[in-house]
Specification:
alpha+beta; Immunoglobulin-like; 2 domains; five-stranded antiparallel beta sheet; 14 strands; 54% helix; AA_ABC_transptr_permease_3TM; transport; amino-acid transport; cell membrane
Length: 443
């Protein structure tokens, strides 16, 4: 009998091998990555429109820029962006640009028609873009709602074959609510007299009303920083300066030499140079100090040298007869200094100390050169973004807010002291005429 089982077994083995090969092929094909149909968002941002800041303000015009990368097998025919409710816009100057090259510096402006439907703006290319194009859309005269918040933009696109897809991963744009100052600035821009005023180049450059108003909040922050510096630095300088003054008039030559050396060095070099040495020299030596405390220390040490001379002159202006009288009453030299000399010294030098405070407050502007965010630094930032000198005028007004009242206070103190001295001289003269005193002594 003939055995036919072997051929059947061979066929089965062949079919099994073929099935395994087919399964392996399917697995390999499924494991191979395929290009996804998706126009991926690379960038979606709005141009900052706040004076001297990177904020996007509601209620003011800005520009939206969206960029996306098409897949290698996608030929984009149109792109649509849907703006948040309450956002106004204009299709004037709206543009679509194709970027190419390794650095995306090669630009092409294909023929495009722009249309709008409600909150949706559509850019339709006359000819579909090459597959894998990098697309940039720009919309101008965008005005987000005044309330601000995270404004979400959505989008979609169509391909050359007519299929439509949604744009994914569009980031929200953070919009800052419009403040009173920004609203006032916008209102001024619309006023006919302001527009007429700004037609003059000189007036627009040095005193632009909208920029003046919008600059006030930022410069005010610098004003607070300047006050925080001087209100800490000056009280620190007073005891240091007084100790130096006592050293200057002391009998030991070493103390006089140390005090004199310090005073001559500090008063003989510009404060600007001292700030540079502290802010750039100390880091090179490995000493890292934050800007605010370092600025306070530098200005305090500078002011102490001037206060030293002020106190020294005040101490030496006290008649020696008072010290001799105190000694005759049994007071020690320390008691004489504390109870007799120091009170009169501070009373006599109070106007001069106030003038030194004014000078120190104005010297805080020098810290702008090393990046401390005070009045001048905030103004400089706004000037760089607006191209107008007006913020410097605002800074000057903030300085005058402090210096003018203090200058009047100095004048009043000086007048009062002169009046007191004149009254004393008149009283002394009348006592002499009455024979109560003989010369400087009681008769």
């Amino acid at each position: 009998m003939q055995d036919n089982r072997k051929p059947r077994y061979g066929v089965r083995r062949g079919m099994l091998a073929l099935a395994c090969a087919l399964l392996a092929s399917c697995a390999l094909v499924s494991a191979t990555p395929t290009a996804a149909l998706a126009l991926e968002t690379a960038k979606c941002s709005a141009k900052p429109n706040g004076s001297g800041s990177s904020d996007v303000l509601g209620g003011q015009e800005t520009r939206i820029t969206w960029e996306g990368q098409a897949s290698a097998d996608e030929s984009v025919a149109s792109v649509s962006l849907t703006l948040p409710e309450g956002t106004s816009y204009s299709t004037d100057d709206a543009r679509l640009t194709l970027l190419s090259g390794d650095d995306l510096m090669t630009r092409e402006r294909p023929k495009t028609s722009v249309s709008s439907d409600g909150q949706t703006v559509t850019f339709a290319l006359d000819e579909a873009a090459p597959a894998g194009s990098y697309v940039r859309l720009e919309l101008y005269k965008i005005v987000f709602p005044i309330a601000g918040g995270d404004e979400q933009i959505s989008g979609s696109y169509t391909l050359a074959d007519g299929s439509a897809h949604d744009i994914s991963d569009v980031p929200a744009i953070t919009v800052t609510g419009t403040s009173f100052w920004d609203s006032a600035s916008n209102w001024l821009k619309e006023q006919p007299w302001v527009q007429k005023w700004n037609e003059n180049t000189f007036l627009r450059l040095f005193l632009n009303p909208p920029i003046l108003v919008s600059s006030i909040p930022s410069v005010f922050q610098g004003f607070l920083m300047a006050l925080a510096i001087v209100l800490v630095a000056f009280p620190l300088a007073i005891p240091f300066g007084f100790i130096l003054a006592l050293m200057r008039i002391s009998k030991p030559r070493v103390l006089r030499a140390i005090s004199g050396f310090y005073v001559n060095i500090v008063r003989g070099t510009p404060a600007f140079l001292q700030i540079y040495i502290a802010f750039f020299g100390l880091p090179l030596a490995g000493v890292q100090i934050p800007s605010y405390p370092l600025g306070v220390v530098v200005l305090a040490m500078n002011s102490a040298a001037y206060l030293c001379e002020i106190f020294r002159a005040g101490i030496q202006s006290i008649p020696k007869g008072q010290s001799e009288a105190a000694r005759s009453l049994g007071m020690t030299s320390v008691q004489t200094m504390i109870y007799i000399i120091i009170p009169q010294t501070f009373r006599n030098v109070l106007p001069t100390m106030t003038s030194e405070f004014i000078l120190l407050y104005k010297d805080t502007s020098l810290l702008a050169a090393v990046g401390v965010m005070e009045v001048v630094m905030y103004s400089k930032t706004i000037v760089a973004s607006t191209g107008s000198i007006t913020p410097y005028i605002v800074a000057a007004l903030f300085y005058l807010v402090v210096t003018i009242p203090l200058a009047r206070l100095v004048s009043g103190l000086e007048a009062r002291m002169l009046g007191t001295e004149a009254a004393g001289r008149r009283r002394k003269k009348s006592l002499k005429e009455a024979g109560v005193i003989d010369g400087d002594h009681i008769a």
